[in-house]
């Protein structure tokens, strides 16, 4: 077993009960699964390619959060668009030159991947 996962699964609360057996188990189990997944993925990638490291930031959900932030921006106070509104917003976003997140979003862009064009559109 991966030492970090073993450490997580052996954490106890103040009464000595293993945390993954208590009602607060969600974080421990989720984090342990994420660690195991990244280590398994890294092992597979390192064996099948010549890569020496993995940029785990690219596995982050921040890009998805920025996309949803952009969708919510399109509707002002309406946080729950219907299917037609969502379809229209996605078309508008895909045709825009950039996707940027709101200043009030709960994430930040650490690189410029979110500001690049989604499609390379060239007019003939």
From TrEMBL:
Residues 57-91 form the Transposable element P transposase-like RNase H C-terminal domain. It comes from the Eukaryota. InterPro entries: TNP-like_RNaseH_C. This is Transposable element P transposase-like RNase H C-terminal domain-containing protein.
